[in-house]
Task: inverse folding
């Protein structure tokens, strides 16, 4: 009961901090005219402040450490309390978060090249490895269980950079990236709670708390009245790094034997499956078109749904529903189907989904051409 109260209080404290800080960021953004200017790639037509992500890192830090401090001050240390290993694990985590946060702030204010961001992301990923979080098993994927460090560590760096950029790249319409992260953090916090890893559940729940008020401003805020806000790179990089850390920690074999299937790995990656698969599809499309895979275009999942004639709000709801579907599917099948077969099932359903969307895009284009011909 104490743990439930602690997590609940942390969640509402994080929401409160966000509700206090985010409106101040809006005021500063309008006074200094720090806007995201519309262009041909973007959906919005009115300049909108893009510094909402400035609130994420400090709110996570304050709400989480306040709760950890209260626990150490008022309650006895238990088996689930902050251990020495967790201490330096979180020290490395918050150093990496600080690096990505600062790079994101610079990118939101003056712009940073993708090469420089990539270097900082690699450094942040290496900090997670130093804390002991790296893939020492593939959980039975393609029949591979235990893996040596010279494979697991580079694979971990790739996973952190991959997940962080996937969250960053899918941030294209109101409420999408923050909504997907809310779903992922909700699932991860429940899993960590059920596993008895309460400090990691605390990190997930504090991150979820600050996202709630931001999501309301991002989705329901009126841009013409100056109430709308984007998260920017400071927010997306912070969220991507936190979720990467939680997924990797849940995937390592500290709870599961390296010679047995790891159901936690399947569920963990399922929480971000939609942005991960979307990145693969977009990169392959750019390479097929002989374009630089690192340069932006209008071929992301949300862009395709917009071309079917859907409204922006409906596109967001559709993609969030797809994410919930994959999470539920994998949660139900993870102990019934081999992890490799489950991966192929996910890829098949993802491909089938996009074939259906392509048909809808064609129909919408033909309909518009007929209307213009009249």
Result:
């Amino acid at each position: 009961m104490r743990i439930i109260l602690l997590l609940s209080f942390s969640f509402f404290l994080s929401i409160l901090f966000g509700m206090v800080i985010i409106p101040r960021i809006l005021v500063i953004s309008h006074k200094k005219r720090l806007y995201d200017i519309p262009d041909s790639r973007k959906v919005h037509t009115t300049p909108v402040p893009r510094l909402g992500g400035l609130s994420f890192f400090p709110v996570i830090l304050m709400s989480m450490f306040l709760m950890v401090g209260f626990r150490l001050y008022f309650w006895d240390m238990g088996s689930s309390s902050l251990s020495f290993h967790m201490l330096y694990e979180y020290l490395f985590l918050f150093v990496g978060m600080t690096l990505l946060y600062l790079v994101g702030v610079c990118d939101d204010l003056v712009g940073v090249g993708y090469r420089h961001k990539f270097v900082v992301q690699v450094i942040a990923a290496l900090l997670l490895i130093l804390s002991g979080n790296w893939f020492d098993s593939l959980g039975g994927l393609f029949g591979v269980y235990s893996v040596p460090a010279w494979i697991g560590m580079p694979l971990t760096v790739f996973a952190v950079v991959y997940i962080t950029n996937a969250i960053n790249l899918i941030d294209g319409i109101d409420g999408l990236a923050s909504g997907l992260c809310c779903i992922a953090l909700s699932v991860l916090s429940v899993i960590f709670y059920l596993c008895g890893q309460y400090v990691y559940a605390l990190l997930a729940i504090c991150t979820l708390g600050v996202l709630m008020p931001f999501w309301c401003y991002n989705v329901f805020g009126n841009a013409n009245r100056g109430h709308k806000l984007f998260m920017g790179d400071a927010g997306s990089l912070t969220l991507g790094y936190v979720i990467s850390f939680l997924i990797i920690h849940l995937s390592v074999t500290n709870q599961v034997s390296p010679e047995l299937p790891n159901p936690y790995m399947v569920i963990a990656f399922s929480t971000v499956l939609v942005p991960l698969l979307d990145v693969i599809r977009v990169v392959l499309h750019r390479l097929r078109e002989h374009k630089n895979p690192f340069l932006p275009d209008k071929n992301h999942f949300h862009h395709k749904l917009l071309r079917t004639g859907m409204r922006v709000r409906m596109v967001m709801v559709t993609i969030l529903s797809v994410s919930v579907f994959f999470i539920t599917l994998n949660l139900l099948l993870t102990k019934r189907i081999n992890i490799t077969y489950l991966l192929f099932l996910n890829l098949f359903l993802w491909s089938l989904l996009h074939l259906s969307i392509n048909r809808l895009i064609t129909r919408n284009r033909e309909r518009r051409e007929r209307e213009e011909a009249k």
